[in-house]
Amino acid sequence: MNRRDFLQMLAAAAAAGMPISARRALAGDADALYDISPFGNVSLLHFTDCHAQLLPLHYREPQFNIGVGAAHGKPPHLVGEALLRYFGIAPGTAQAHAFSFLDFSAAARSYGKAGGFAHLASLVKRLRAGRPGALLLDGGDTWQGSATALWTQAQDMVDVCLALGVDVMTAHWEFTYGAQRVTELIENDLRGRIDFVAQNVRTRDFEDPVFPAYVMREVNGVAVAIIGQAYPYTPIANPGHFMPDWSFGIRERELQKTVDDARDAGAGVVVLLSHNGMDIDLKLASRIRGIDAILGGHTHDAVPAPVPVENADGTTLVTNAGSNGKFLGVLDFDVRGGQVADYRYRLLPVFADLLPADAEMAALIEKKRGPFANKLSQPLVVTDGLLYRRGNFNGSFDELILRALMEVKDAQIAFSPGFRWGPSILPGETLTREDLMNQTAITYPSVSVNELTGEQIKSILEDVCDNVFNPDPYYQQGGDMVRVGGLTYACAPRESIGSRISDMRLNGELIDADRSYRVASWGSTAPDAQGEPVWEVVERWLSGHQHIAPVKTNVPRLVGVADEPGIGLP
Ligand SMILES: [Zn+2]
Fold first, then answer.
1. Would you call 307 helix, strand, or coil by DSSP?
2. Cα(292) to centroid(ligand 1), Å
3. How far is the CA of 235 from the centre of ligand 1 (A)?
4. 207: CA distance to ligand 1 center in Å?
5. Which tens digits make up the pLDDT trace of 227-277?
6. Angle separating helix axes 20-27 and 3-15, nearest 10 degrees
7. Is the peptide bond before 570 cis (omega within 30 degrees of 0)?
8. Residues near 77 by Cβ (< 8 Å), separated by ≥ 6?
């Protein structure tokens, strides 16, 4: 242990259990962090992928975020110390905690929770006061991720976003409430208040636009075009039968035309409010002319500084603003003579201890949660270890779900989807029903058990793995690697489909390609999926436990990635 580590350890130890005022001192001066001088004449505030998290939380950033092909070693595929070094963030600071998984439990206790819409609202108000006309953009994955969002069919999130003053939004998980509910909310609740834009959603029959491609807003005399890009693979990553008449895709040609139309209509600034995911955005930025910035989401990458991407017509800035309400992106443009002359960007962590809760928003959230408060607060179990999900492979919360699936359903192997959402629970905390729902609240939660041959299992793992690690980002069509219980395996991310997965074993024995295995899973996108909701299965399993001991995550043996800055040492 060197001197720096020692001091860090002392600070962490001292901060655990500290009163909030002392934590504030440790995190730094709120004014220094949040009183950023206004710049230019067009400001955009951007949050994305809050996954319906209305209250402050902990969210551990990934320890595994492997970059393949051209993405190797570049943002967003940097984690832990490699990320801090690249962006010049000092270790052992509040910023280091916000952007990395390092020393997570101790740092989380030191710096307190992040996000929460009441705290976000106070930050938005503070920034808007110094930036008249600033637009607030919501990148999507806002309506899904919590029990209350599921139980109100997104009504709580819609009401809260209206109160927050969101100007423009695009979408992904929103579509899992079904085309009818999405349309109903847009036509009734959002109408005249929040513009829902998505250039890449068309009708299946005639390819007609389903939503406006973009909206033009005037900010301090400058015409600002906000183009929407919904998640292009929604019907693949999620059940397509929820929106059977709509087709998605990246739609580069249509996007270029929309950009050109916006410029012809006098736009001095053109931004893409994107839910592509950062790797897709980086490729797209190199191929489309005329976009000043892509404000991105979906991959939950908290990237402290924009990546400038050259293309035929100039440079496009590509950003990604993290997730779970932890961050607010602030992009200030200086627009002169009808074009962007200069910019400033910051991705501000929303530290709940440093920002007072906005009273109106806090009251609204309490009102929305009120009817469900008893149900939500039901204690389930005490966790002795840290529970988290995010990362390329199994997180510790996934392990809990997998164990429940295998034991309750008497299965040899379990699969759980590689979702990127889901807050973290610190060691010693009591897991509530709300915490469990925060990991499982989807509109297609059925658990099923299937007999699969070794060969079928291999082909499922290869398929999902290709969706994560295909070197062409346009073929990255899902979340992270499927979480696997029971089975161990080796994974070579840089190989190609069919050659990435090997050495699959059950209880140490090699899997037999021809033999059948009993496999439990949930979240099937098939229209006929049936079975009890996963949260019921997990809750039943937890009822037999008082404590959950710290779990070792079933991360595959990784092959050929020795020099990978997207893998962090614990
Ligand atoms: Zn998404």
1. strand
2. 22
3. 12
4. 23
5. 999 999 999 999 999 999 999 999 999 999 999 999 999 999 999 999 999
6. 150
7. no
8. 65, 66, 67, 71, 565, 566
Residue ranges with strand state E in 25-113: 42-47
CA of 558 to the centre of ligand 1 (A): 26
* CA 49 to centroid of ligand 1, rounded, Å: 7
480 Cα to the center of ligand 1, angstroms: 11
CA of 51 to the centre of ligand 1 (A): 9
| Residue 354 contacts residue 24 (beta carbons within 8 Å) | yes
Tokens of 431: 């897991």
Q: Domain 378-558 maps to which CATH number in 3.90.780.10, 3.10.580.10, 3.40.50.150, 3.40.50.300?
A: 3.90.780.10
Distance 231 CA to ligand 1 centre (A): 6
pLDDT > 70? residue 207? yes
Distance (Å) from CA 218 to ligand 1 centroid:
28
**Strand-strand pairing, 195-196 and 214-219:** unpaired
What residue has token string 């996934």?
398
Q: Which long-range contacts (CB under 8 A, 24 or more apart) does 79-86 make?
A: 79/565, 79/566, 79/567, 79/568, 80/568, 80/569, 81/568, 82/565, 82/566, 82/568, 83/565
Name the maximum alpha-carbon separation found in the chain. Answer: 69
* CATH fold of 3-32+47-366: Purple Acid Phosphatase; chain A, domain 2 (3.60.21)
Spacing, Cα 153 to ligand 1 middle (Å) = 17
Confidence of residue 67 (pLDDT cuts 50, 70, 90): very high
Measure 142 CA to ligand 1 centroid, in angstroms: 9
Sequence-ordered list of residues with C-beta below 8 angstroms from that of 296, at least 6 positions apart, any chain: 48, 139, 274, 275, 276, 277, 278, 281, 318, 319, 320, 321
Q: Say how many Å lie between the CA of residue 270 and the centre of ligand 1.
A: 22
Give the integer Cα–Cα distance in Å for 234 and 198: 13
Residue type, 328: L
Is the pLDDT score of 15 beyond 60? no
Contact 135, 45 (CB under 8 A): yes
| Domain ranges, ordered by start, for the chain | 3-32+47-366, 378-558
Q: Which tens digits make up the pLDDT trace of 333-371? A: 999 999 999 999 999 999 999 999 999 999 999 999 999
Distance, CA 356 to ligand 1 centroid (Å)?
29
pLDDT tens-digit map of 438-486? 999 999 999 999 999 999 999 999 999 999 999 999 998 888 999 999 9
Length of the chain: 570
- In angstroms, the Cα distances linking 26 to 348, 425, 474 are 17, 22, 42
Two structure tokens written together for 83: 């990320």
